[in-house]
Amino acid sequence: MGAGGGDRTAAVIRSVISNIPIVGQALAEVITEIVPNQRIERVEKYLLYLSEEIDSLRIANVDAAMKKPENVDLIEDGAYQAVRALSDERKRYLARAVAQGIRSDEKDKLNEKRVLVLIGDLDDGDLLLLDAFASRNKGREKFAKLRPAQPTINNQDPLVRERWGLYQASIDRLTRLSLLNKHVDLDSKTKLPSFDTFTGEPKGNLEVTALGRLVLNRAGLTDPNNV
């Protein structure tokens, strides 16, 4: 896209968000500088969601806060992730995380950026699964929608195995990123780990870590008081 294309993109951005109360003008100025060549249709909803989230947080001196280099960096990271976002829910997750980062204390900016990176490493299914693990009373209901049928010795259907493999891959990703932690069950007699006879994996319970709850909180999926 040449200079003319960049100018047209900036004009479209301004037309989308210039009328948003309180933060629209400041947001337009930041975005037109950092993403002039991005496909605006991919970031339009992210910008609208971000303005809503910032407005709801009632940030003091919001215009000045929006233009701080560290906050511009957060907005930029969120915009680049929004370009790849395939759902409105993902754009909303990104907007919430960025808005929380803008509101955070200066000493916490780097940590908020790291949380945004973690959200970028997860797909929508990963986040919903993490949320199901974090839920207590509603956890079973959420798992019923997310957990596929498990392959057994008598059921080796390829589609069942594929779906189960993807489900396990999601759990492995959450564990690798330290968002889930497995508490291994020990045999009452030998005091050694018990193993699943079908998968060969240690038996145990998966629990959401403090970092996992922080990610959920920033994505707007849990009560802030539970973090």
Topology:
Blueprint lengths: L2 H15 L6 H11 L5 H18 L4 H5 L2 H16 L3 H16 L5 H13 L2 H11 L4 H8 L11 H19 L3 E5 L19 E5 L1 H9 L9
Protein described:
With 227 residues, the protein is mainly α. It has two domains: 3-121, no CATH class; 125-226, Orthogonal Bundle (Arc Repressor Mutant, subunit A), CATH 1.10.10. It has eleven helices and two strands. It has a two-stranded antiparallel sheet with strand order 1-2. The longest helix has 19 residues, at 158-176. It is elongated. The termini are far apart.
Which spans have pLDDT < 50 for at least 5 consecutive residues?
Answer: 1-6
Q: Span between N and C termini?
A: 44 Å
Residue fraction in strands: under 5%
Helix and strand string, N-terminal first?
HHHHHHHHHHEEH
- Gross morphology is elongated
- With strands numbered from the N-terminus, the spatial order across the biggest sheet is 1-2
Average pLDDT works out at 79
- Major sheet: size, sense and barrel closure? 2 strands, antiparallel
Q: How many separate domains make up the residues?
A: 2
Radius of gyration: 21 Å
Task: Give the class from helix and strand content and strand pairing.
Answer: mainly alpha
The helix fraction, in percent, is 55-70%
